[in-house]
Write a structure and sequence with these properties.
Elements (H helix, E strand, L loop, with lengths): L1 H9 L11 H21 L33 H23 L5 H8 L2 H33 L3 H16 L2 H9 L1 H4 L2 E5 L6 E6 H4 L2 H26 L3 H9 L4 H31 L11 H12 L2 H30 L11 H19 L1
Keywords: Amino-acid transport, Cell membrane, Membrane, Transmembrane, Transmembrane helix, Transport
Family: Belongs to the binding-protein-dependent transport system permease family.
InterPro entries: AA_ABC_transptr_permease_3TM (IPR010065), ArtM/GltK/GlnP/TcyL/YhdX-like (IPR043429), MetI-like (IPR000515), MetI-like_sf (IPR035906)
């Protein structure tokens, strides 16, 4: 290192008025390269002794890091936040478990009671029927809204406007009291006396029929906007390219548009389904024996209000949790066309976390 420094010192520019000699200029030009060469050779580089780049084909010597110690990155504030949240969760859990006023024995007694289970099955039936019919009707309304016909667009828009503007409770009561407005419901040729089918409204519109009708039509209004937004999220250039290739319109819709639109539709659609599960509790105003109405009848008889409300709450949590799991895996399936690698499942993330920390701990020993 001292020799390189001395050569650089010897290559200082000549005093003012004296031109630098050719030899001095050569030393000045070579000194930095020689110093860099010596430094690189000291580190085990393959650079030639004269400086410059190594000749082509010269094998590179890989750096040896085997003697280095692998240490996991430190995240102290992450651990502080985790500890604080864990402490809060434990405090809430301890409060719920030790407060005798929750009456957990009563909750356990009624949680699997036959009457409660029957109410739960009615809730699931209402959710399934209303959800399926609502999304089918919503899909039709979305296609009408996207059509080129002004009449279809106007009818679809008016439907969504009316049913999104009125409370669900009002809609349920209106359908249940439809017999007051129309004594009979008939099917025939409009503006004539020809009737193919006729029935008393009070016979046709039962509590269950009014509940399904109200939930379905309300759900269809929101589903139409969800599906329409998902379809519009697909790039129009893909449709133009598919049309240029001569792909039929139906095949373009089923193989190009809908698979991509599902990525935008699914999150909001599952939110609507989860909301529908909880929205079935409003049907209690029709005295229909779904979960919430059943629990209400029981606590009116036993005066155990909070434990019975907790029973209903726990069942709603179970249903929405199962739906959330389905949502995660369905979204993961439809994300294949948007990401190179599918996101890890929670179980895979846990396995990766523990495997990484186990390897790190072994190497640090």
């Amino acid at each position: 290192m001292s020799s390189a420094t001395s050569r650089v010192a010897q290559a200082r520019p000549a005093p003012t008025g004296e031109p630098a000699t050719t030899a001095e200029a050569g030393v000045a030009a070579a000194a930095p390269g020689q110093a860099a060469t010596e430094t690189a050779s000291a580190a085990g580089s393959t650079l030639p002794s004269g400086g410059g780049l190594p000749p082509e084909g010269t094998p590179r010597v890989a750096a040896d890091y085997s003697s280095y110690r692998v240490v996991a990155a430190k995240h102290p504030w992450r651990w502080v936040g985790t500890a604080a949240v864990a402490l809060g969760v434990l405090a809430v859990a301890w409060s719920l478990a030790t407060n005798p006023r929750w009456e957990w024995g009563v909750v356990a007694q009624w949680f699997t009671a036959q009457s409660v289970v029957n109410g739960l099955l009615e809730t699931l039936k209402l959710t399934a029927i209303s959800g399926i019919l609502g999304f089918v009707l919503g899909f039709i309304l979305a296609l009408m809204r996207l059509s080129a016909s002004p009449l279809l667009v106007s009818v679809s828009w008016t439907f969504s406007w009316i049913f999104r503007s009125t409370p669900l409770l009002v809609q349920l009561l209106l359908w249940y009291n439809l017999g007051y407005l129309y004594e009979k419901i008939s099917l025939g040729i409009p503006f004539t006396d020809v009737r193919f089918f006729e029935v008393q409204t009070t016979t046709l519109i039962s509590q269950f029929a009014a509940a399904v009708l109200g939930l379905t039509l309300n759900q269809a209004a929101y589903s139409a906007e969800i599906i329409r937004g998902g379809i519009l999220s697909v790039d129009q250039g893909q449709l133009e390219a598919a049309a240029a290739l001569g792909i039929p319109a139906w095949r373009r819709s089923t193989r190009i548009v809908l698979p991509q639109a599902m990525r935008a539709i699914l999150p909001t659609a599952f939110n609507e389904i989860i909301g529908l599960v909880k929205g079935t509790s409003i049907v209690y105003v029709l005295a229909y024996s779904e979960l919430f109405y059943t629990v209400q009848v029981i606590y009116n008889r036993t005066q155990q209000v909070l434990p019975l409300l907790l029973v209903a709450t726990l069942w709603y949590v179970v249903i929405t949790s199962v739906l959330s799991v389905f949502q995660y895996y369905i979204e993961r399936h439809y994300s294949k066309g948007a990401v190179r690698n599918l996101p890890l499942t929670p179980l895979q993330k846990a396995r990766k976390f523990f495997a990484t920390h186990a390897v790190t701990n072994r190497k640090s020993l």
